[in-house]
Amino acid sequence: MACCTVALSALLTLGTSAGAATTVAHPKRVTTGVTGGQSAAPVRALPSPLYGVTVDDVSNLSDIVASSETLDHRPVTRVYFDVKRPASSYAAAVHAIEPVSYVMGELLDSSDSRHIGTGAYNKRVKSYLAVLGHSIDLWEIGNEVNGNWTGRYPKVEAKLTDAYDDVSAAGGRSALTLFYNVGCGDGPRELDPVAFSQRYVPAPVRSGLDYVFLSYYEGDCNGIRPSAASWIAYFAQLHSLYPHALLGFGEIGMDQPATSATMGTAASLMTYYYGLEIDLPYYVGGYFWWYYDEDCLPLADRPLWSILQTALTSEAAALSG
């Protein structure tokens, strides 16, 4: 999650905001393999489009399950895995969500990237594959990886490459999320998604990824709302770099849960992005509203719930062709 502005100091200040129990926010090498006979082979096909939501806290599991059963379109629930928690702590939640939703596992949020080294992250990925492999439909191997708060780019490259190798060796699907910062990036210290991909995503990874997503927060980018035509042009650029991947948005939202003062902004963001008409054969939507937990659950008490329902219907109509 892009926690606030792209300025590094501010991001580090809010870096814990995406916590699972709190209200939030390399040298190139080819396949290393996964030891111990781990298998994460997908057991079911993913739909197109993807109707994405994000849960940053699974303590209200009954609400999450009930909402998935109630949504008009079967969601893909993206579960944030806290960098300090083992895979076993999410097993019950994932197994409860799996029958009513597709599941995307966020292995490392950008706000946590500096809090774990390359070797430790590799061990973490293998552990999560071993414990949850058969229940996760899609593994997010890196989140907002070009954001300058994630650490030195060579280390970021090492982490995403190892994670890609591990997930691939286990037979799982992999997704990479890039931080869209065109027009608001932090100068030469923060590469845009295309430049980062060219320099720090090895060619075998670019060729092998199943999904590539953009994360975008208007509030962190001078309020810029690119047109559908602008997004189409940018996704076409990404497609030239990731020719075998399906593309979409891996995260949208605001830096804090919606309040009465910001409800209109949240509704506008949901409505606009989920309803984007992007006529590209490899575009699958997604969006994965970050504060789904806080903004929409429990569904009977949150006004944004009905906005999301309508937004998913708009997504279905926009991408039905």
Quick overview:
With 321 residues, the chain is α/β, with parallel strands linked by helices. The protein has helices at 8-13, 61-70, 91-97, 118-132, 153-169, 193-200, 203-208, 228-241, 263-274, 292-296, 304-318, and strands at 50-55, 76-80, 102-106, 138-142, 174-179, 211-216, 246-252, 283-289. The protein has a single domain (8-19, 39-59, 80-318), classed as TIM Barrel (Alpha-Beta Barrel), CATH 3.20.20.
Helices, strands, pairings?
Elements (H helix, E strand, L loop, with lengths): L7 H6 L36 E6 L5 H10 L5 E5 L10 H7 L4 E5 L11 H15 L5 E5 L10 H17 L4 E6 L13 H8 L2 H6 L2 E6 L11 H14 L4 E7 L10 H12 L8 E7 L2 H5 L7 H15 L3
Parallel strand pairs: 1-2, 1-8, 2-3, 3-4, 4-5, 5-6, 6-7, 7-8
Keywords:
321 residues, alpha/beta, TIM Barrel, eight-stranded parallel beta barrel, 11 helices, 8 strands
